[in-house]
Amino acid sequence: MTSICCITTRLGTIVVAAISILFVGCTTITTQSFRVNKSSSVESSQIAVGADFAKYNQLTTDGMGIFFPENAAPSKEDQQRARQIFRTAFLGELQGYTIVDGKGPTTLEVKPSLIDYRKSSGGDALLVRRDLRDIANPGSLIFLMELVDSESGEILARAADSVSVPVFGTGENAITDWDTVGSAAERWAKLFRKFLDENLNK
Q1: Which one of 53, 55, 169, 188 has the largest count of C-beta atoms within 10 Å of its C-beta?
Q2: Between vectors from CA 83 to CA 192 and to CA 152, what angle results, nearest 5°?
Q3: DSSP at 29
Q4: Are the beta carbons of 64 and 114 closer than 8 angstroms?
């Protein structure tokens, strides 16, 4: 497994900002208490107080959420290709985990999301899940990883990364830079694996 470089001071500043954005004023999250996992190799990480990952022995996911401003999104074809690139990268990093289709008492749901609002005018927050609207800020790009109890829907852990910058083409003649998309997918897949391993004691 390729190791992930240590976070620099500059990135530490980004982490603090990302955590603040993620967990301030979010209606769903304020009902839970979280602690910052300072020893995590992931850029920013918070774990729900009292979260017990010992009972989980398999994972499920309904795919990756990718969110763009309504009037500045890549073509549907490019979005689908991007999802496939991310899916391939993520599955390549999940060796050793049991992946299932359904939910259950020992099944942990993983929810990766890419919120690319770098070209947002500010009115696009309603396009994302209600509990993600506080991080859908104009000018921001955040990759979010969530671990959720598949039956109760309780968020047990969240991590964020905002370093890799995929270049998506928007507009009639714009071209997506697939090399940057692939590099971001590989980085985030490795971060996701690290995040899982830290919490599931692999």
Answers
A1: 188
A2: 55
A3: G
A4: yes
